[in-house]
Design brief:
Layout (H helix, E strand, L loop, with lengths): L1 H24 L3 H13 L24 E6 L2 E8 L29 H8 L7 E5 L4 E3 L12 E3 L4 E4 L13 E3 L4 E4 L12 E3 L4 E2 L12 E3 L21 E3 L6 E2 L13 E3 L4 E4 L13 E3 L4 E4 L3 H4 L6 E3 L4 E2 L10 H11 L4 H40 L10 H8 L15 H4 L9 E2 L2 H7 L8 E5 L2 E7 L5 E9 L8 H8 L10 E8 L8 E8 L6 H6 L1 H4 L4 H20 L15 E3 L5 E3 L26 H21 L6 H17 L1 H6 L11 H14 L10 H23 L5
Helix pairs in contact: 6-10, 7-18, 13-14, 13-18, 14-17, 15-17, 17-18
Subcellular location: Membrane
Catalytic activity: L-seryl-[protein] + ATP = O-phospho-L-seryl-[protein] + ADP + H(+); L-threonyl-[protein] + ATP = O-phospho-L-threonyl-[protein] + ADP + H(+)
Keywords: Glycoprotein, Kinase, Leucine-rich repeat, Membrane, Receptor, Repeat, Serine/threonine-protein kinase, Signal, Transferase, Transmembrane, Transmembrane helix
Length: 737
């Protein structure tokens, strides 16, 4: 009987304890609603599937992807790990507008609205949101989560600056913002006295080294754009165990105190521009397990504590200019000496003066060239119109044709033959042309990371990059020989700044870098182009799903865009630009299917001629007239592929298609319709097709002098689309259009 009473008392106590624990861990209805809002705003990721009105969030099964901890009826920890990955490219378009990536949340997502919901979890101490595809500028309202101790939003697409309000989170012990798109300077974090872990790696932060509190245990700033000396104040960081500053642009010597910090175990300074030598009497902390100083500009000998072999310590020192080590893994001394001089940042005063001088020179040259362009255009237009021969006789309404030919563009339409070329390059939505600094170019390409190398050819290397405003660009690096300078360089830079047109992959800016003591290459020019991400015309014609998008009216609009781009290169700048490597893969299409020519010739002293055309003629030996007709021939090759939908890979294939078009044109409408790409059937007027085929055949004439001028090609294409518009407005267009 006594035992029964004891047993009953124990069960009652256990029941009351469990009841109290459950009620204590049960969320308030308001915080339950907040979690459902989080699920909705994150667009129902897989890790949050299965939630219902019966879910007890405080007793979810343990998972490495999801953790919710409740205390006194409030959420104190929220950890969600998705599968969106870290950003390998910027999700901003060349216009600066955010472009949704397959790795990001949708266009309707708002990071600000998401954090507005999160701040209602007023007791939150741990917030970890990893690889969820979050995008947008970092909200300043983060300071409302005043009780936060751990903040981890790594491997997302958060861009802009780290808000200064983050220093209000005085309880923070861990701050992890790694692998995002953050840029600019880091706010002063000295006031975060509790902070022990700081990880800002894999962003675009810099250039100054951040100001930090000395209680940190882990500092990771790798893969950023820090360009300064390592501050000597780090000697006061007595608790520091891990310091990773790799893959930046840090300059100057390595402070001796880093190796002897009392707690240091891991030191990574690889892939910077650190220079100078080590002091002879440096000592290393016995706890130091890894030191990586590779790929810098260090000279002299390693200190004995790094040079001696030890099973407890790994030292990586390759690709410096250190003596006493294997020469197969070190540069010669002269390399580090010259490179250290080249990367030494100029004084602000000198930099400002040189910028003013360059701007003044370009301004003066611009005025002179501008006058010459206007006069030259007037003369050229008179000559061309007097010599012009039209390949189709008919009434041409320029305004109607232009309206149709660029209907995919938001730019006002005018007859391209009736206005000066310089006016046509305006109002295309580009930022003003800029002269950039080397630092900006290095930041954009992540110090010319090989992973960002897109192409390498006889005209230089092409890198993909991201400017500090988040916009995506292409950066072409061209090395010039001393003999080409400086007599015509400024004039060519002025021409370069004019290469901005609706139907060109436009030039956004340039940077000139001169290394006075470099024996072989005196000057490198970096040319910055806009980035077009929607693929090429070749991509569309080779993909059956994309090909169906290109009905006949869209194809005509693209051909007119290509022709206008060529016309601008020939006559919109002085002197004209010819030999433009016009291939179907170099015709890029933006989101509105507007054609933009890429990989055209840029007027630089070291420019090597374009690749040989399909029919084997050498453009380098041509006069400017023949070079113009060579571009017309290559336009004809593009037109053949647009009409038939068949890609041309050889001269033989091209000749077969040309003969097929010629023969079927002679045989009549039914035969000619049969050779057109089936994806366009029912969407074209026969008169439009016939006119396009006629001008295509003329472009492919084997005798260069018999080919039409680019103005004649443009006139006929515009007439073609005018007849197409009339046919469409008469109700003849197939219902699927």
């Amino acid at each position: 009987m006594e035992n029964s009473r004891v047993s009953f008392s124990s069960l009652l106590a256990l029941f009351l304890f469990v009841l109290f624990s459950v009620s204590n861990a049960q969320l308030s209805p308001s915080e339950t609603r907040i979690l459902f809002q989080v699920q909705k705003l994150l667009e129902y990721p897989q890790v949050l599937n299965g939630w219902s009105n019966w879910t007890n969030f405080c007793y979810l099964p343990p998972s490495p992807s999801l953790k919710i901890v409740c205390t006194n009826g409030h959420v104190t920890e929220l950890t969600v790990v998705g599968n969106k990955g870290s950003p390998s490219h910027s999700p901003k378009s060349s216009s600066g507008k955010f472009a949704v990536s397959s790795q990001t949340l949708s266009q309707s997502f708002s990071l600000d609205a998401f954090f507005t919901v999160l701040t209602k979890l007023s007791s939150l101490k741990v917030l970890s949101l990893v690889s969820l595809g979050l995008w947008g500028p970092f909200p300043a309202k983060i300071d409302r989560l005043w009780s936060l101790e751990v903040l981890n939003v790594s491997s997302n697409f958060i861009y802009g600056q780290i808000p200064r309000e983050i220093v209000s989170l005085r309880n923070l012990t861990s701050l992890v913002l790694a692998d995002n798109l953050l840029n600019g300077s880091v706010p002063d974090l000295k006031s975060l006295g509790q902070l022990q872990e700081l990880n800002l790696g894999g962003n675009h932060l810099g250039p100054s080294f951040p100001s930090l509190g000395n209680n940190l245990v882990t500092i990771v700033l790798s893969n950023n754009s820090f360009r300064s000396e390592i501050p000597s104040q780090l000697k006061n960081f007595k608790q520091l165990q891990q310091l990773d500053l790799s893959s930046n642009k840090l300059l100057g010597p390595i402070p001796s105190s880093l190796l002897s910090l009392p707690s240091i175990q891991y030191l990574d300074l690889a892939q910077n521009q650190l220079s100078g030598g080590f002091a002879a009497n440096i000592s290393c902390n016995a706890k130091l397990k890894l030191v990586d100083i590779s790929q810098n500009l260090l000279i002299g000998k390693l200190p004995s504590c790094l040079a001696s072999k030890s099973s407890n310590r790994t030292v990586i020192s390759s690709w410096n200019c250190l003596s006493g080590l294997s020469s197969s893994s070190q540069h010669p001394y002269s390399f580090c000496h010259k490179e250290a001089l080249a990367v030494k940042p100029p004084s602000k005063k000198k930099e400002k003066t040189s910028s003013i001088k360059l701007g003044l020179i370009i301004g003066i040259v611009g005025a002179v060239v501008g006058i010459a362009v206007v006069l030259g255009l007037l003369i050229l237009l008179v000559i061309r119109r007097s010599k012009s021969t039209t390949f189709h006789v008919g009434k041409y309404d320029g305004s109607a044709a232009d309206k149709m030919s660029v209907r995919s563009s938001s730019v006002p339409t005018i007859d391209s033959r009736r206005v000066p070329q310089t006016m046509r390059s305006a109002a295309i939505g580009l930022a003003p042309y800029r002269v950039l600094t080397l630092e900006e170019i290095e930041d954009a390409t992540n110090n010319f990371d090989p992973q960002n190398l897109v192409d390498e050819g006889n005209q230089g290397r092409l890198y993909k990059g991201w400017l500090r405003d988040g916009s995506v660009v292409m950066v072409k690096s061209v090395k010039l020989k001393q003999k080409n300078l400086p007599q015509n360089l400024m004039q060519q830079m002025e021409t370069l700044s004019k290469l901005r047109h609706l139907h060109l992959v436009s030039v956004l800016g340039h940077c000139i870098v001169t290394y006075q003591d470099h024996p072989s290459t005196a000057t490198t020019i970096f040319v910055v182009f806009e980035h077009i991400s929607n693929g090429s015309l070749r991509d569309y014609l080779s993909d059956s799903r994309k090909k169906d998008v290109l009905k006949w009216p869209q194809r005509m609009a693209i051909t007119i865009g290509v022709a206008r781009g060529i016309q601008f290169l020939h006559t919109g700048v002085a002197p004209g630009i010819f030999g433009n490597n016009l291939k179907i893969e170099n015709v890029l299409l933006d989101d509105s299917l507007t054609a933009k020519l890429s990989n055209y010739s840029i007027p630089l002293p070291s420019k090597v001629g374009s690749e040989s055309p399909l029919h084997g003629q050498d453009t380098n030996s041509f006069s400017s007239i023949n070079a113009e007709k060579e571009d017309v021939y290559q336009l004809g090759v593009i037109l053949v592929q647009i009409i038939t939908g068949k890609l041309v890979t050889s001269s033989h294939e091209l000749e077969e298609l040309r003969l097929m078009l010629e023969e079927n044109l002679a045989e009549g409408p039914s035969q000619l319709r049969a050779v057109v790409d089936p994806a366009t059937r029912g969407t074209f007027a026969y008169e439009s097709l016939r006119t396009t085929v006629e001008i295509t055949i003329n472009c492919l004439n084997k005798v260069a002098s018999s080919r039409p001028s680019i103005e004649d090609v443009l006139w006929n294409l515009q007439y073609s689309i005018q007849t197409q518009e009339g046919w469409t407005s008469s109700g003849n267009l197939a219902t699927h259009m």
